[in-house]
Every structure is written in C-alpha cells, then in structure tokens.
UniProtKB/TrEMBL annotation:
PANTHER family: NITRATE/NITRITE SENSOR PROTEIN NARX-RELATED, NITRATE_NITRITE SENSOR PROTEIN NARQ
Pfam families: HATPase_c
Start and end residues of each Histidine kinase domain: 493-674
Transmembrane helix recorded as keyword: yes
One GO MF term: protein histidine kinase activity
Key word Flavoprotein present: no
Residue stretches spanning the membrane: 102-122, 129-150, 170-187, 194-214, 220-240, 252-277, 289-308, 320-340, 346-363
Listed GO biological process terms: phosphorelay signal transduction system
Key words, A-Z: Kinase, Membrane, Transferase, Transmembrane, Transmembrane helix, Two-component regulatory system
Annotated protein name in UniProt: histidine kinase
Organism: Sulfitobacter mediterraneus
Length: 688
C-alpha cells in the first residue's frame, strides 16, 4: 500500500509542477504565440493516432508547445463559449490542485482502489495466484497513473517526457494483461506447470519491447490487449470445465469470467479498438473514464480469490450472466428481424404486424422466460412426502423418511451427516458447500454437503426452503401429537365411564335378588355402554330425568345391601327442567355411583344421605354416611376417588372429602354452564 500512495503522491506533485495558461472561465485555447492548435494536439491518448510516424509528429509538436509555455506569459488565442475569438498576452503560472480535471482524480482513484483490493485479498490468502493478482493490480495503477498525467494536461508536455509516460502506460497495461492470463492459468486450480507462466510473460514482453523501440510500423499495443483478453477467456473456459464437480471453485470462477468479460470488453471496444481502426473521432467514452471499467475486474477477481460469501455471489453472478446473454441474444434476433423485413419489399405492414404480434413477440417472451427463470430446490411436489415423515409410526422410521426427503430435494453428493450438536437455525458452512439443519422435535440435526450432486452451492434460498420444511414438519408432528393426545383422552374417558358407571350398575345387578330388577339393571348397563361409546361428548340430557333415574338406582343398590337411603324426592320433583351437557351429567352420575360404591364397600354404614341443590349456576351434590370413615382421597388406594377428582377438575368444579370415626362426607360443585334451576324445597337442602 505504501507503493500505491507513493504513486498517487508522485502524480499530484508532477501535475502541480506543470505550466498552466490562465484563461477566462470557459475559454478554449486555439493558438499559442501564433502556433495554431490542431485537433490532434489535444488528443487524450497518442495510441489513437495508429502509426509511429503520426505519433512522432505528435510528440514533436508537443515539444514545440512545451517550449513556448516555458515563459512568464504567452500570446494566447482562445474562443469564448459564445464563439468570439480573442488573442492577448496571458500569464503562465503553475498548476494548482483546483486546476486538475476530475478525470485525473478518477483515474488515480481506480488505480488506488485496485491496490486496496489486492491488499485485502493478500490479507486473506497468500499463494502464487494472489501474487499474480498483486502484479495485476500494480499494473493497473501504473497504467492509470501514467495515463492521468498526460491525459489531464492543459495543452502539452515535453515530447520525450510524453513518450516515456506513454511507454510507462503500455508497461502497466502489459503487466495487467499478462498477470490476467497467468491468473486464469492458476485460479481456481493450477492447470499448467509453473514454468509455463513464463510463456505469456515472454510473448507479451516482446510485444511491449516492439512498441517501445518501434520495431513495427504500427503499435502492437491494441493487438496485445485483445490477445491477452482472448487467451484469458480461453483459460477461463478450460478452468470452468475442470471445475464441474467443484462448486466453490466454479462460483469464484463465475465472478472471474463475468468481471473480466464485462470490464475488458467494455474498455477494449470503447477505448482501444476505435483508435486501432482509425476511428478515434467516434470514441463513445474517453480513455480516462474507460479506466472505470477495470473496477469491475478488480471487484470480481477480489471476491473470487477471497471467496467472500460465494454462496450468495454465485447466484448473483449466474443471474448477471443470464441477463447479459439474454440481452445480447435478443438484440441479435431483433437486428436480424429488422434486416429481413427491410430486405423483403413484399412484406406489407399487415404481414409485419402479424409476424410481430403472433410469432415474434410470443417467442421472444418465451425465450426471456426460459433464460431468466430461476431454478432452485422446491417442495411443491414433495408435500405428501413431508406429511409421511411426520406420520411415520416410529422415530427411526421418521429419521429414515426425513433423510430421504432431504436427499430428494437437495441431492447432496455425500452421505447426510447426523449432528449431535446442531445449530438453532439453518446455516451455511464451508463457503456454501455445506448446509446445517437444526433438530426438529425428536429428529436430530443434519448436515448436507455438495448440493445438486456437487454442481452448485447452497444459498440463501435453500435456507428459506429448509425453514419452510421445518415449519411444515413441525405442524404435521404437532397435529399427530394432538391426535394421539385426543385419542388417549378419549380412552381415559371411556375407562372412567366404564369403571364408575358400568361397574356400579353391574355391581348393583349382581347383588339384587329380584330377576326383573336384575334384567332392568343389565339393560340400563347396556344402554349406558352404548351411550359411552357412541355419544361421547356430543349429546345433552334432561337434568331431572337423570337425577330421578339415579335416585331410583341408588335406592335399589343401598336397600339390597340392607342400608337406608335418605334422598328427599323434593330434589327432583320441583323446579324447572333443563338440558345439561353430557359431560356434566355423566360426571354427576359417575361421581354419585362411585361415592355410593365406596360407602357400600368400605364405610360399614347403616345410612347414606344425598342432597342436590343449585346456587348461582353451580350444582352442589353432597353425600354422607354414618360409617367408620376412611383415609382422604389422595391417600386412598384405587382409581375411583382419583377419577372423581379428575372429572371435577376437567369441568372446572371442586370436590372435598372429610372422614371421621362417625362417618364420611363427600361434596362437589360443578358449573351448569349458565343453566338456572328453581329454588328447591327446604327438605331438599343440604344440611350443614
């Protein structure tokens, strides 16, 4: 970098030591001390003259003008913007920084940027390819800086000095072009022995010596530049073919080829070729600004060699290539069509409109879509496979199907790796060679390498795709778990209903001595069993009908065991009837049956009392006996009391149990979903 800044400082010092005629603002110099200024005297690049003879004449006139300017003042003829001509003595002073044109700073900025890019790459990698890039960048700065010195002159430099600066410009260009050829021979893989690097150095060195000493009639400088470009592209194509199964190398090479193609082609076609063909008057852009095209080359080469985020740059370069190729192809087709229509006098306006509307424009649009459409991994046709992963019965089956899905979508060239320590989110690794996928619920993380069988790199679109896959898979797994949870809850419900209801009824049928009553209980049991299986949580029941049936059933169960039931008929005989959800009514029935069963089996009681009431939308059920009592429900063995607690908790109710030596009292409160019950008579109240 020290050399780069020294070159810039030297250029500034050199220009500020040159003479400058002080002219009115906007004036154009047309003569100096009576010597008329002809168009070639102000030409920016002497190579545009085409032959050494014309160039020697140009340098002679430059020497003549430089001698005239070596004085305190000159007789300057100038033309004002309004076309008025004037001639008067004007002072000659030193050039200041404000006198330097913008193109001077632009050219030196291009050269300085080239060296900065080379320094960045050199900090990342140090091999023979980077050395070639350093030489290329140095050659570009040398060429740009020397061209800025004579390109930014007001009128003239000493002819001999001018020729030396021109030769220095040619030397920098030769170094740049030769280094570019060597770079394509070395990057991304060395395809020739190192000794072969001397071939382009010798060949293009001879070109430079020929121009320096005038061995030919015309400069070979343009031929050398075009040759260097073509040879570079040939080696680039060879490198591209050899990197078929190396996606990282191919990604960097795409930037090499793209930047070289764009930068060198634009500079050569717009700045070098017109002068070589004697068309310097038709230059589209001045040479000074044409140096800006080399910035494309520096950026592309720096990114390619430094391998900076190649997984993203690879996709961008591919799109740029498609746009350039598509634009060129469309322009060629448009030109051929125009030429064909012009050469066909029989093609009337109607025929031309028909061809353009129904044939040409649809075909051209189809071609654009084919060229510029993006092709990337997709899951559009993989939805059934994604669902099958989540619905696989075992974890090992899901692991296997998950690997098959990833392989079908991304086609990795290597075996999918299982990661014990997976990242929290999808991420790219190894410059896009690898894609790490996080763990998804019971599936471990994965690492994929070499997308599309090694023909491309993983990129940001693949990250989005993996994120979509993970979301989709998570939804499927959560749906599966929700289904399994629902099935488990339904099985538990059936188990509780069978235990609390069917068990109690069968027990009552077992202990009754009346055949008719036994048959009725068995029929009721079958009816309840069908209700449990078929109705589930869907139906609603009349509250008082169910309570009345429960009272009769409980009376039979208690009396057959020789006990007394205290349940006033007023609890059911009065009040407005209501529809109660099956879940609530089934809980009441199951709880009452279980509590009575516990009293019959464990309490050794003589009397069982039941009370039902409603207050503020809450149904209150209380059952107590005069037995010996037993342990609280949390310590009691069996499923009955735990089922009671689960049922009341599920319905948002509460339950409480107290047991002493004089008996056991059990109570529950359940919401009736806003159903209001009429006030019950006093004999139906639960005693304190």
């Amino acid at each position: 970098m020290l050399v780069a800044f020294m070159i810039l400082a030297s250029a500034v010092v050199f220009m500020t030591s040159r003479p400058h005629i002080d002219l009115p603002p906007g004036a154009e110099l047309v003569s100096v001390n009576g010597i008329e200024i002809i168009p070639t005297d102000t030409i920016e690049e002497p190579d545009q003259l085409g032959t050494f003879a014309l160039m020697r004449a140009f340098f002679d006139r430059q020497t003549q003008f430089a001698a005239e300017l070596d004085a305190p003042s000159v007789m300057a003829g100038y033309r004002m913007p309004n076309g008025a001509l004037s001639e008067e003595a004007r002072p000659v002073r030193g050039t200041t920084l404000s006198d330097l044109p913008f193109v001077f700073w632009f050219q030196n900025a291009v050269g300085l940027f080239a060296m900065l890019a080379a320094a960045w790459v050199f900090s990342l990698r140090r091999d023979v390819g980077v050395i070639a890039f350093l030489a290329l960048s140095f050659g570009l700065q040398l060429s740009a800086a020397s061209a800025s010195l004579y390109g930014a002159r007001q009128l003239a430099l000493d002819g001999e000095l001018f020729q030396r600066l021109s030769n220095l410009n040619h030397l920098g260009t030769a170094i740049f072009g030769t280094s570019l050829v060597c770079l394509f021979m070395l990057f991304p893989r060395r395809i020739v022995p190192l000794g072969w690097l001397s071939v382009p150095i010798v060949v293009f060195g001879l070109f430079h010596l020929s121009d320096t000493y005038g061995w030919t009639e015309a400069p070979l400088y343009p031929v050398a530049i075009v040759s260097q470009l073509l040879v570079s592209l040939v080696f680039g194509v060879i490198q591209f073919r050899k990197s078929r199964n190396q996606p990282v190398d191919r990604a960097g090479l795409r930037w090499f080829l793209l930047s070289t193609f764009v930068g060198c082609i634009l500079f050569t076609m717009l700045s070098i070729v017109p002068g070589a063909l004697g068309l310097s008057e038709t230059l589209v852009i001045s040479q000074g600004y044409a140096f800006g095209f080399f910035t494309f080359i520096q950026v592309g080469l720096a990114l390619g060699i430094g391998r900076f985020r190649l997984f993203a740059l690879d996709r961008i370069s591919y799109q740029i290539w498609l746009w350039i190729s598509g634009a060129i192809l469309i322009l060629v087709i448009d030109g051929l069509l125009l030429i064909w229509l012009r050469e066909q006098p029989w093609a009337s306006l109607t025929i031309a409109l028909f061809i353009g509307s129904f044939l040409y424009f649809p075909l051209r649009q189809w071609l654009i879509n084919r060229l510029l459409s993006t092709r990337s991994a997709s899951i559009v046709d993989k939805v059934p496979q994604v669902v099958s992963v989540g619905l696989a019965p075992t974890r090992s089956a899901r692991e296997k199907k998950w690997d098959e899905l990833l392989h079908n979508i991304f086609s990795p060239a290597s075996q999918i790796e299982v990661l014990d320590a997976a990242p929290d989110r999808p991420q790219l690794g190894e410059n896009g060679l690898a894609l790490d996928i996080p763990a998804i619920m019971d599936l471990k993380g994965r690492r994929l390498r070499y997308a599309a069988l090694g023909r491309r790199l993983f990129n940001a679109s693949d990250l989005d795709l993996v994120g979509m896959l993970m979301q989709f898979h998570t939804v499927v797994l959560e749906s599966r778990e929700a289904f399994e949870t629902g099935a488990h809850q339904e099985r538990e419900r059936i188990s509780r209903d069978v235990h609390d209801n069917i068990g109690a009824q069968l027990l009552g049928a077992l202990h009754t001595s009346k055949e008719a009553r036994k048959d009725a209980l068995l029929r009721d049991t079958l009816t309840d069993l069908r209700t449990i299986v078929n109705h589930g949580f869907q139906s609603s029941l009349q509250l008082w009908d169910v309570l009345l049936d429960l009272r009769n059933e409980t009376t039979d169960r208690v009396e057959v065991r020789g006990l007394t039931l205290d349940w006033p008929i007023g609890d059911m005989a009065t009040g407005e009837d209501h529809l109660v959800p099956y879940t609530t009514m089934n809980a009441i029935r199951s709880i009452l049956r279980e509590v009575v069963s516990n009293a019959l089996k464990h309490a050794a009681a003589q009397k069982i009392s039941v009370r039902v009431s409603e207050e503020s939308g809450m149904l209150r059920l209380s059952v107590w006996d005069d037995g010996a009592g037993f342990e609280a429900m949390e310590n009691h063995k069996g499923n009955g009391l735990s089922n009671i607690k689960n049922r009341t908790d599920a319905l948002g109710g509460t339950c409480h149990l107290t047991s002493t030596d004089s008996g056991t009292r059990f109570g529950i409160e359940l919401p009736l979903d806003g159903i209001k019950m009429s006030e019950l008579p006093n004999e139906g109240k639960v005693p304190a």
